[in-house]
């Protein structure tokens, strides 16, 4: 399956920043039960490689599991060794993008300008993480949509909530990365599952409206 296949199922990426290996599997199962198919564990979480490994054991290929906050090419190999298949970055370092693609992993670099976006595509990016979304806003998404390839997936990240998701979607966003509004340390798997269902419903209403 491609990145697009997973995003077609549900274009919401769960960002589990701060999750621990001991809690990650129940949280991952709760997300999957709500319909999520893409999950990232940021590398500034406790023992993130082990969490990625445990998510893969719990969910298998039914979900696309990967890492966020990937900063260097060397981290790509560690992620791949744990079964991670998705590299998400806060920046668009071409060396990291090329390392991810050389390892046959999906790569979503973070960009905040059109120049960064087109450069990331030239290096093989599979989609673009528009970050931080609060800084860019729906108006910028709409402007970018007019000049980037129509098939390209725009994924705003940063401050996305059930309340503002529709505005980004109508401006041309194709999906979203969900951070603290979906998961933060201390939440139970049940609480994360409830929040996940709320986002799925907000997406449904935004698409219908």
Describe, in plain words, how this protein is organized in 3D:
There is one protein chain. The chain is 48% helix and 15% strand. It is of the alpha/beta class and 209 residues long. β4, α5 and β5 (106-108) form a beta-alpha-beta unit. The longest helix has 20 residues, at 189-208. The protein is globular, with a radius of gyration of 16 Å. It starts with a helix and ends with a helix. The mean pLDDT is 97.
Order of helices and strands: HEHEHEHEHEEHEHEHEH
Q: CATH homologous superfamily - what is it? A: Aldolase class I
Mean pLDDT, rounded to whole units? 97
Helix content: 40-55%
Judging by the overall fold, what is the CATH architecture?
Answer: Alpha-Beta Barrel
Features:
9 helices, alpha/beta, six-stranded parallel sheet, TIM Barrel, globular, 209 residues, 15% strand, three-stranded parallel sheet
């Amino acid at each position: 399956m491609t990145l697009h296949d997973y995003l077609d199922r549900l274009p919401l990426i769960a960002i589990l920043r701060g999750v621990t290996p001991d809690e990650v599997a129940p949280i991952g199962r709760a997300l999957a039960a709500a319909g999520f198919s893409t999950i990232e564990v940021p590398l500034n979480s406790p023992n993130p490689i082990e969490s990625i490994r445990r998510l893969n054991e719990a969910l298998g290929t039914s979900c696309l599991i990967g890492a966020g906050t990937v900063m260097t090419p060397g981290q790509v190999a560690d992620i791949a060794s744990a079964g991670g298949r998705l590299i998400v970055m806060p920046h668009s370092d071409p060396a990291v993008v090329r390392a991810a693609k050389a390892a046959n992993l999906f790569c979503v670099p973070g960009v905040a300008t059109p120049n960064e976006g087109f450069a990331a595509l030239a290096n093989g990016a599979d989609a673009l993480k528009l970050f931080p979304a609060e800084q860019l806003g729906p108006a910028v998404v709409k402007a970018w949509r007019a000049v980037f390839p129509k098939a390209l997936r725009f994924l705003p990240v940063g401050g996305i909530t059930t309340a503002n998701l529709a505005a980004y979607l109508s401006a041309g966003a194709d999906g979203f990365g969900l951070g603290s509004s979906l998961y933060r340390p201390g939440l139970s798997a049940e609480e994360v599952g409830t929040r996940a269902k709320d986002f799925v419903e907000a997406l449904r209403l935004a698409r219908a409206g």
